[in-house]
Amino acid sequence: MTKRVFKFSASGCDGDREMKNLLGGKGANLAEMCKIGLPVPPGFTITTESCVHYYKNNNTWPEELEGQIREAIAWLEKDTGKKFGDAENPLLVSVRSGARASMPGMMDTILNLGLNDKVVEGIAKKTNNRRFAMDSYRRFIKMFGDVVLGIKGEKGHENPFEEILHSVKKKAKKEFDNELNDKELEEIVNASKEVVLKKTGKPFPDNAWDQLKLSTNAVFSSWMNERAIEYRRIYKIPEDWGTAVNIQTMVFGNMGDDCGTGVAFTRDAATGENVFYGEFLMNAQGEDVVAGIRTPNKIIELKNIMPKAYDQLMEIREKLEQHYRDMQDIEFTIENNKLFMLQCRNGKRTGLAAIRIALDLLDEGKIDEKTVMSKIEADQVTFLLRPIFNEDAKKVAKKEKRDIAKGLAAGPGAAAGRVCFFSDEVDAMKKKYGKAVLVRNETSPEDIKGMEAAEGVLTARGGMTSHAALVARQRGKTCVVGCKELEIDYKTRIMTVNGHTVKEGDPISIDGSTGEVYLGEMPTSPSEVMEVLNGTKKASESSTFKRFSRLMEIADKFRRLDIRTNADAPGEAEIAIAFGAKGIGLCRTEHMFFGGERIWAMREMILAHTETDRRKALDKLLPFQREDFAGIFKAMKGYPVTIRTLDPPLHEFLPQTEKDQKELAQRAGITLAQVHARVEELHESNPMLGHRGCRLGITYPEITEMQARAIFEAACDVKKAGIEVKPEVMIPLVTCLPEFKNQEAVVRRVAEEVFKAKGMRVDYMVGTMIEIPRAAVTADEIAQGAEFFSFGTNDLTQTGFGISRDDYGKFIKDYMEKGVMKVDPFVSIDPGIQRLMKYAVEGGKATRPNIKLGICGEQGGDPDSIRFCHDVGLNYVSCSPYRVPIARVAAAQAALGVGSEK
Amino acid sequence: MTKRVFKFSASGCDGDREMKNLLGGKGANLAEMCKIGLPVPPGFTITTESCVHYYKNNNTWPEELEGQIREAIAWLEKDTGKKFGDAENPLLVSVRSGARASMPGMMDTILNLGLNDKVVEGIAKKTNNRRFAMDSYRRFIKMFGDVVLGIKGEKGHENPFEEILHSVKKKAKKEFDNELNDKELEEIVNASKEVVLKKTGKPFPDNAWDQLKLSTNAVFSSWMNERAIEYRRIYKIPEDWGTAVNIQTMVFGNMGDDCGTGVAFTRDAATGENVFYGEFLMNAQGEDVVAGIRTPNKIIELKNIMPKAYDQLMEIREKLEQHYRDMQDIEFTIENNKLFMLQCRNGKRTGLAAIRIALDLLDEGKIDEKTVMSKIEADQVTFLLRPIFNEDAKKVAKKEKRDIAKGLAAGPGAAAGRVCFFSDEVDAMKKKYGKAVLVRNETSPEDIKGMEAAEGVLTARGGMTSHAALVARQRGKTCVVGCKELEIDYKTRIMTVNGHTVKEGDPISIDGSTGEVYLGEMPTSPSEVMEVLNGTKKASESSTFKRFSRLMEIADKFRRLDIRTNADAPGEAEIAIAFGAKGIGLCRTEHMFFGGERIWAMREMILAHTETDRRKALDKLLPFQREDFAGIFKAMKGYPVTIRTLDPPLHEFLPQTEKDQKELAQRAGITLAQVHARVEELHESNPMLGHRGCRLGITYPEITEMQARAIFEAACDVKKAGIEVKPEVMIPLVTCLPEFKNQEAVVRRVAEEVFKAKGMRVDYMVGTMIEIPRAAVTADEIAQGAEFFSFGTNDLTQTGFGISRDDYGKFIKDYMEKGVMKVDPFVSIDPGIQRLMKYAVEGGKATRPNIKLGICGEQGGDPDSIRFCHDVGLNYVSCSPYRVPIARVAAAQAALGVGSEK
To answer: Is the ipTM beyond the 0.90 threshold?
Structure first.
């Protein structure tokens, strides 16, 4: 018989922390904490496999599950000495979800299960605390009503149970929940039960077993609720993992003033500083803290209020860090001065914190360098490179009194945009104004999509561990929370802030590093790391920069992939070198044709009807190209530079406005009608699949010739000046060997001509993009000519999928929403496209075992794609300059086979 | 030492007919004819490998070649008792090309080699025939001048040697070459030598050895001349085969009136009738007959003139057919009443003739059914299906006296179009008027491209074996030759025909089955086979139809592939069934949306902004679709029908003219601006890669739903009427399994709904197009859902190559000319695309071993592609109705591993 239920208590555990896949993160860690002797209320975990069974079998339990649960409840009654559903000595339990990967707040929780009209009086009698009993009961009804019975508030309205609470508080003239007395709470209980009867047509279920079964199913079902699906989509969590269900003896933080509940991080989750960091509420139950309903107290205050519990918590902090060798996020409850641990897990943290914590743990001897690499996500390096508000702009704003409020700095960075009050309207606001800041009283998991789309998030309520803060930090969103001065009226879509009126659509700026809120959109300036690299700050004065450098050094010890950059100008190349790029993987020569006089020469070339005229125009372009290449060769100081010959269709260079067309006619000495005719002639039905890439070079070999001449003349000149050069000439859009050979012949002929004229030689290679499926599957043939391949994954994705990046906006949303696609293939290399690449790698190596292999598509900077590139055996990845540091870390992680926990 | 030279003579041969690859077709057959005792002048063959060596080694001979040639010449001197270069008793030779595949007239020939001023007098003395000696000499200088020294005429001018001939003839007032006397010929010799001196700056080479070496190199070089390259491109002959060189003792047909030369076919090459068919010229050398300079005599006349030679020829005819078991094309020369064979090869023939000859040989017991399949090219079946002029139109034309001339019926069929006098202008003429007929005095290999592009070819000179006739027959071109009434003035671009003036661009019609030429473009009517199938002629009255049926029966015995058709309407389906299609492989539902009211309902659907409005419009379309499908199911009588759901992007259905847009606005009750807006909204940068195929069905499932409903309601209705139905629903443009699953779910749900409502079930399948590279390489996954694959090779070629068929006209010409592409991948499946298909077949079968596999792209009717489809293991090919018979033959040939000789 399959074991479906795993018990945990001080007297023994069925599971441990290695069993996350089966017990979920929460269940595995509850067992682990029991094992290392921490005070954990006893309970049991229903396996994730049971959830998977539930979905695969039309929402039914495995046969053996009910029996095992009944057996576990009996064991729990024995362990606690209480009885489930009993009015005299009742066992109350919590029912909580817990998946393999942490999905904070995504799924549902029910506390105080086992209560009914009789049991509540039994509790009241037993604890001699009727207020507490009623408080627990009204919470239970609310959670059960919400989660199990699906009773929600409508848009613009609060949850009906919250409404009852507010109206009773108002009537009683009490500000906080914990000020209500037992009668008032009983009034809430009765009103809540009426809501249930009215909304469901049935009375609130009073049988403890029914409550437990329904709640377990509700937790199973929450795995497929919309926000959980959305969360999994974002974090790429497979649907077939399922969630575990944890059923645990209740301990109560709401039993009186010697009670409380809290959450804490063993280190600062925002900065990574090694300080105990958390919040708690006296006389409250768990969800109160996280939900941000009351603004909680700082953890340090617990030292005064309950010094013993505080000391115990500090001991546990150290024990957990020693045991897990990572920063922990914990939940605890204090019941009558007694501390209980309800959860521990590796704490979510900002990129800044992740990097600092990993490096500190290394210094503290808790982890080694390899583990440092496993403790961060490559993308988190971005946090070190994020912009901040321009200090001068801030000064001006302050002078103009546009600094209207200050909240908690929950997500570092700087964000500016238009105010938007509803998450599902952020996209529309962005469409209208470009950037949006989401402003809410508080956020809930329903808001994930809107938060993702917004530049930043500002909330009126909640603390550093509120939902908004957690999500923002993890996603690298700039975020300010608990900004109490905000008074938001969702109906009129206006908020007032210290006397200022801010309407929907007004510009606003928030500083996630200081908590400041400004009127107007403020300009930003670069990060500290950027400042050091720019020379505006000394490296020695920036601990951020020092950590950045150290992290890069460690990454470089492990990675096997080289990192190059895509750069078209000397300036870009220099930034990339500063970030550690060891070459240029893609230099797009066409970008060089746009500036100033060049574009006119280019256009003359396109208008020419004879080779002679084209050559005349190309002669004008030659010195520009040569100069550009020389600049790049110099900047790259001997690192290889991959230069792609002309790629885009010619019509992209022709003027689109009548004014420019007239100027072109005048300059070229032809009529406007002739210009129009040529524009018309160059029009294509599907330019992506048209006359571009090497197809241009084959029709007009003189273009390739000019470019080759510019490359080799520049290379000789720079080499003569004492700087090593390594040009790699790359032919785009090749589909077959003869195309490559045709262009290679032009390049090699010109190279020899230049070398002869200059009386010197330069080592160079000629290779090709692999960006067309036919090229991928005939790479064995193409490698007969090409000395290197560079995967152009943008075009390979377009042609491999038959999807135009310019047009796929029309259906990609439907695809994502309907689960047809899980990941945007233009962000992360799709598995089908990976197969094409694999064929190409195998084919290329079969023909030319030492062929050089790289990638220069956008996905070259995406950590998941980098992992694939490593696995498939590429030599390098090339990405935009700002992603070079991320790529270095991702490459190291790929080599180590590690990555941060999802 | 590699053997480079193979001798042949009555006394023994080094080679035989199996050695075509090494000796070329001509060399191998010369040896073979010697072996079977036919009178062949002795000689030797330089191998094709020597030619390949020549090209691979910078145009130099293999070391051993010269020695072997010298040795062979010495042997030949011994065999003939003559001496090479000797003035008293000179050995004269011919030097002729001969590749593995016959390339008639593509390469070069030199006759009478060994002559110079001294030798010519020796010959004159020895033969006592100075006229003959001079005639041979002037021919030699002309051929050597043309072929070896490259002296050509310019456009609009004749060859300078021809000009000399014409001016001497004019001066001497003689009509034909053979009327010239020795003095006149000597004048030509001297003038020709002057031309050589003037054009090359050197005197004509008089050393026999120099002549031989230069001529051998010229033949090697002719392998790479433009017309040979073009010919190989058309016939897909590999460049690396090279040509052999045949050096053979001269025999002379120009030695007097007991001499002559001729060419013949052992059967009628136009109709296939079992009659000896050929032409000869008295007192002439070989090229005179083929070149069409004089119109030759019919072979039957030889019986009177030289009965002994004629009888001998008849014996040889029978011997050759018995030996080769095929119709032979022979060349012979009669020297002083003695017959010599100069060549034999399998004769080129029309499709009509190929089929008739093969079936006759079968009846004569010379070959078996399998060999019948090897004796024809599948494409030749077209000849049986080609249109003829409408008899009524012909009567009218004759009444109006528009029948202006009659030539030889050299290529059956009917062609009408505008007169074009220059081959390189046919394309322009077609662009202007749609169709063109090429009209020339005679054609040469330079004209191939123009002939290919023209509807038909009309020549003033030449016989049934002239270049024009040969090429036209083989390529299935309608062709009339030797139409002497034509007087063409290339300079004024006007021809006069029996008093009529016909200008360039005037309409003309030619009947390649009767030789008639008409003014004006006449309508055509279908072939005899078509008439029988249409019921306008009885099968018993048409021997053509009987042969057609018999051929199809034989093909069906061997083929393994099923043949289906692409048909969108019941009428098309019926034709296809008559041609033997066993199902529909592609029924494009969108074509049904265009007629009458349907298009307006379709447009309403596209304009709708809500699902409700879309469903309203779709409800209007449903009855139309249902009716169409019912018609097709009935026509297909239980054969499977593959119906593809909506594929093209929606904008293709919207009106493009202002008038129609206004009507649409009015019908839909919206403003014109709203119509414009929707048109704009639907615009795509790359519609080929846009919102189309299953992407539409995923965004708008109600469209798929309506189509599925129409399919299953029609299927039930037809089945209820007692006709079996096999619908196969095909989802287009699938890239991944989830897309397929999404649409499959809609189809299966609707099917169940319909079956329930109708109280009956219909067997059906749901499958997918494989037309996107990603689908091909993940076919293993897609086959988890799809019950069948149909390769959409049009789109697979577009996306696999990254080439749009709408745009590739801009560079495909360059590609063909520069040898980058050899075959248009939209005509014949490209080898790279074949690899993608192979992956898909392997993947599909791995997951679903009995998966049904077919092809429905245009290439499904191309014999080479059908061969691949057979080899890779498809179940069927689907092609346009008129290509079904071709596909049946091609499928049989694929199964037998045979195909006609190239």
So the answer is: no
